[in-house]
Specification:
alpha/beta; two-stranded antiparallel ribbon; 20% strand; binds flavin mononucleotide
């Protein structure tokens, strides 16, 4: 029996959490993340949860037990856990800071473990002269420790402040094309990893 397109169960939209790593007053991270947000909205196919770590305002990790135990005692940890658990994929927009990535992002990552595990993540890294590449290189081993699956495509932005005008980030060169390729990859990885997590639950 042939299956008509109309008979197919539609795929649920991919829940993509976009995280702004910088919490600094006057940050350009907000402009870069708003460009990312607008690009994803125009493209479609993703349901975005936009997380501004400055607004989330997590303290430094203050749980007694290790995240793998998931025995949270703080309301902010339980709320963060529930929000991350909902996501199918992540996109981190982080500045390069002293050849590493945003310390606020590191802290937000360190709060949890299982909620990140076996989900795909894409990186948009920006900086000054270093241009973001050292930032994403420092982030990769942390993500792998948390069992996140890092997309091979990424967007590194050199001298990002020179591309911000009146608060708007203006993409140049291949940046929009690279972002699209990264979103294609997240769009392919998210359902595959979702079904992998679901079968692990059934087998578990
Ligand atoms: C403390 C500090 C260290 C920095 N270290 C680097 C660096 O190692 N490499 C680089 O390319 N840019 C570096 N920068 C530049 C930042 O990446 C750049 O200012 C970026 O805009 C910061 O992000 P934000 O404006 O969203 O906070 C540094 C900036 C600060 C404040």
């Amino acid at each position: 029996m042939s299956i008509r397109i109309a008979d197919r169960v539609p795929e649920p939209p991919i829940k993509l959490m976009v995280v702004i790593g910088s919490v600094r007053p006057g940050r350009i991270g907000l402009s870069v993340a708003l460009w990312v947000h607008e690009h994803i909205t125009n493209r479609g196919g993703f349901e975005i949860d936009f997380v501004d770590l400055a607004e989330l305002n997590l303290p430094m990790v203050d749980e007694h037990r290790l995240p793998k135990a998931q025995q949270y005692t703080r309301r902010h940890t339980s709320a963060w856990s529930a929000r991350v658990e909902q996501a199918d994929a992540f996109l981190f927009v982080s500045p390069e800071i002293n050849s590493s990535f945003s310390p606020a992002l590191k802290n937000a990552l360190d709060f949890l473990f299982h909620e990140w595990s076996r989900k795909p993540v894409g990186l948009v890294s920006y900086g000054g002269r270093g241009g973001g590449a050292f930032g994403s290189a420092a982030l990769r081993p942390v993500l792998s420790e948390l069992e996140l699956v890092v997309a091979s495509g990424h967007v590194d932005i050199h001298q990002a402040s020179s591309q911000v005008e009146d608060g708007f980030f203006l993409p140049e060169g291949e940046q929009a094309v690279r972002l699209d390729a990264l979103l294609d990859e997240l769009g392919a990885l998210a359902p595959a990893l979702r079904s992998m997590r679901e079968s692990a639950l059934v087998a578990g």
